[in-house]
Amino acid sequence: MKPILLDFPVPIISPRLILRPPQVGDGVIVNEAVIESFDVLNKSMPWAKEKPSLEDSEEFVRQSAANWILKKNDEPYLPLFIFDKNTNKFIGGTGFHHYDWDVPSIEIGYWLRASCSGQGFMTEAVNAQTQFAFKELKMKRVTITCDVNNIKSKKIPERLGYQLEATIKSNRLDSQGKISDTLVFTKFDLDGLLNLPVTWK
Ligand SMILES: CC(C)(COP(=O)(O)OP(=O)(O)OC[C@H]1O[C@@H](n2cnc3c(N)ncnc32)[C@H](O)[C@@H]1OP(=O)(O)O)[C@@H](O)C(=O)NCCC(=O)NCCS
After folding, report:
1. What secondary structure does DSSP assign to 107-146, as a single string?
2. Does ligand 1 have an atom closer than 6 angstroms to the CB of 120?
3. Domain boundaries, given as residue ranges, for the chain
4. I want to staple 84 with a disulfide (CB 3.0 to 4.6 A). Which of 39, 49, 89, 183 is the partner?
5. What letter would DSSP give residue 47?
6. Of 186, 169, 180, 185, residue with least CA distance to 43
């Protein structure tokens, strides 16, 4: 099937969280969260080189909403915004990228609002997304990559039973411009995921 014709039954819902695609008008909430978290994001996310303006953030959510229809395998890919189910607070972003619908395989990336860290929200979100990838999208391979020195990031696939498949040497620059290594974590089935209820539309 042509990617543009794929339908994803989102939102994805887990005990504390709702994950949904960005919508027109979300620029305000994402901008506030990125500005709040900028010092952390600047060290790890290639897109966080400069503080975004409100217009930059609104442009990003509109391009994202458009790509949820187009399914282009390119920036901004398929972001999912994460909300606290009880308070409706925007707590961060995750999403699918580098998809190959023929294998099929997919990659997951993520960032958390600084004030929402240390509560297991991202582990819960990536657990939900991984379940969705295998059960709904019928993926055969789900990948998470991170810098070898991004300890908080690598703990997430480790907690969820992803295997360290490879360490790719000297293939990236860290935030200081120093050459660094990439860890590739992979999952081929649901083994090792958290036993939390996850549903989607
Ligand atoms: C990577 C990142 C999302 C991790 O955030 P985090 O808060 O450590 O992740 P979680 O939300 O899953 O929380 C896990 C922490 O909460 C604790 N926790 C509390 N309640 C928990 C629960 N119910 N379930 C799991 N963990 C829980 C865990 O013990 C863990 O703390 P620890 O690392 O001190 O052991 C965050 O650091 C970030 O956004 N970094 C910048 C962007 C980035 O690097 N993205 C990844 C690029 S590859």
Report:
1. EEEEEE-GGGTTSSHHHHHHHHHHHHHHHTS--SEEEEEE
2. yes
3. 3-142
4. 89
5. T
6. 180
CA of 169 to the centre of ligand 1 (A): 25
> 60 near 72, Cβ under 8 Å?
no
- Residues constituting the chain: 201
Is-contact 113 35, C-beta < 8 A?
Answer: no
- Establish whether residue 40 lines the binding site of ligand 1, counting it when its CB lies within 6 angstroms of any ligand atom: yes
pLDDT in tens, 63-114: 999 999 999 999 999 999 999 999 999 999 999 999 999 999 999 999 999 9
Q: Measure the CA–CA gap between 143 and 187, rounded to whole angstroms.
A: 6
- Residue 1: per-residue pLDDT: 86
- Whether 44 is in the pocket of ligand 1, judged by its Cβ within 6 Å, is yes
SS3 147: strand
Of 123, 127, 79, 125, the residue nearest 99 (C-alpha): 79
Cis peptide before 11 (omega within 30 of 0): yes
Question: Closest by alpha carbon to 36, among 91, 83, 79, 82?
Answer: 91
Answer yes or no: are the C-beta atoms of 6 and 67 closer than 8 Å.
no
Torsion of CA 142, 189, 169, 77, to 10 degrees: 0
